[in-house]
Amino acid sequence: MVLRLLEQLCHQVQWIGEVVLTHNLAAEPVPAPPGGWPFRFIEVFNTVPAGFGANHNQAFTRCSSEFFCVLNPDIELNDPAIWERLVQRGREDRVGCAYPVLLNPDGSRQENEREAVSPLALLRRHVLKRAQLRADWVSAAFWLVRAVAWRDVGGFDERYFMYCEDTDFCLRLQMAGWKLARADATAVHDASWSSRQFGTHLAWHLTSMMRLWLQPTLRRYISWRMHGA
After folding, report:
1. Rounded distance between C-alpha atoms, residue 115 and residue 34, angstroms
2. What pLDDT digit, counting tens, does each position of 32-78 carry?
3. Do residues 59 and 26 make contact, with C-beta atoms less than 8 angstroms apart?
4. CB atoms near residue 176 (< 10 Å)
5. Mean pLDDT, rounded, for 182-209
């Protein structure tokens, strides 16, 4: 998946200045294509696995551009206008994070826009089967974040090893006066949905959800919304 994504990025270089690839587990360096990489390519090899947020915060320390992209390796870029539309949306007033519509490999639409993960929201969604009220956060499978907005909120909270760090980020981003904005663009996300299976990923998900509920960010956000955000 990583090689496929890198190949696609090589064909969209007018929008890309630098790519940082983090290997969280032992891996061999990625061979350069014939003629070399058309952008600055940096590989980071972790000696100890780090969390999703920590890896992206580390990658952001190298960012000197207007935007910073969070991009999962299981994303497929089939929309030739995706970067132009993301950048255009990201430059609108007070937009801190622009994102595309994510599709499943079969073409159906993923729910990458979600209501804040409160117990009440989960009850409405999973038990009562009601539609979500609004998009409080967006899956970090594919974001284009304005660099100044990232710095403003301090990036990801690294206490979340995996899962819910994107929820926490989006809530803090909006409370800081920035907006989430969907672009008129699509990308395919071949998600593994590991957290829906028993094992380590499910444990990480549950631990992160409990942290989100116990930390003040979610409570502050709900109060902020209630008082006319």
Report:
1. 45
2. 999 999 999 999 999 999 999 999 999 999 999 999 999 999 999 99
3. no
4. 13
5. 78
**What's the pLDDT tens digit per position in 82-96?**
999 999 999 999 999
Q: Are 110 and 41 in contact (CB under 8 A)?
A: no
Residue among 153, 156, 114, 157 nearest 136 (CA)? 114
Q: Residue 52's closest CA among 152, 129, 164?
A: 164
Domains defined along the chain, listed by start: 2-226 (3.90.550.10)
Nearest-angstrom CA–CA distance, 36 and 161: 34
DSSP letter, residue 138? E
The residue type of 117 is V
* Per-residue confidence (pLDDT) for residue 196, from 0 to 100: 47
Identify the CA nearest to 164 among candidates 208, 196, 207: 208
3-state secondary structure of 76: strand
Show the tokens assigned to 23.
């290997």
Contact 217, 168 (CB under 8 A): yes
* CA end-to-end distance (rounded Å), the chain: 40
Which tokens sit at 206? 């549950």
Q: Which residue type is seen at 200?
A: T
pLDDT tens-place string over residues 128-149? 666 666 899 999 999 999 999 9
Q: How far apart are CA 45 and CA 30, in angstroms?
A: 11
